[in-house]
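Input/output pair, single chain:
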Amino acid sequence: MSIYSSFKQKDDIERLTCLISSEAKKTINIMEICGGHTHSIMKYGLNTLLKDKINFLHGPGCPVCVMPVKRIDTAIEIASLPDVILAAYGDMMRVPGTHSSLIKERAKGRDIRMIYSPLDIIKIAADKSNKDKKIVFFAIGFETTTPMTAALLEEVIAKKIGNIFFYINHVLVPPPINAILDSNDNLIDGFICPGHVSVITGSGIYEDIPLKYKKAAVIAGFEPYDILSGTLLIVRQVEGNAPKVEIAYKRAVKETGNKKAQDLVNKYFEVRGEFEWRGFGNIPKSGLKLKDEFKVFDAEYVFADKLGESAYDAKENAACKCGEILKGRLKPDDCPLFDGVCTPENPIGACMVSFEGACAAYYKYRNF
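Output:
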């Protein structure tokens, strides 16, 4: 019987906490990749509940947070071109670039629109007043949201819509994990792997974690009992010196993932040679781009002659520690700007902007 099914009782959390505390013989460092996990850990106080045995570290699983300043600056450049409508998710609107942000540029009169779904862009294109506009979708996200972008492109092609373009910023989960583990200063014993990503990819993408790096890897859901169930499995792997990939979220995740979504992504996308990440720099084979046969929809190709390396000398705020937080080297309250200069109302770094950001989680639940 699985851990999850064993504790379908009102005292799930208490029982799991007792098991973790009794079975962990030392403090175990666990990195959760997904920002949704970070928020659940902070909201339900799991970090405090297990503080003597589990040290939760927060990884690069927030797609807004990992976008570097240069990519924001390029989006601003695109939005500044004549007859362009730039469409972006709400969190991206407030992420600071070098000198501005999308929401500030919109206040200056740029046609920058917040969307909730990629299919909202079809509605923008259907508006007759936009027939002579170039509509650019600022596409971001991990393996979870890439199929939605692929579905939008398929719809654009099927309907022969000629004025929708894609600024692609889709990234992959395994490469930054490998980058963290390849560093000489990581103290990680195991990973809570992202549930939503794994629904699409399946569990196979994490095999390097136990096979190459000898670390524990458990896919977990987002409720407190999900996270604690995953934590207990990691504790047992670490204490038994038996690292492997396990699924503690079997009600949603299959080993093979969602084949239909994978096929849709593979139809339109291929892996880039490298992609820049906030705090990491360039990571090889960590991002996606449209295949050459679809490059007529790629904004970076279509507008290449109008875009420089960047409109600005792209630089992160030197005092902001978002990059170190994304690598698990610091926690949000280690940053000198946290809850002083940097707040959700005045975010200095992307980790405070996004709902999934670790700094936003610490700020929201700091008094709990």
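The first strand starts at residue 28 and ends at 34. Confidence is low (pLDDT under 50) at residues 1-7.
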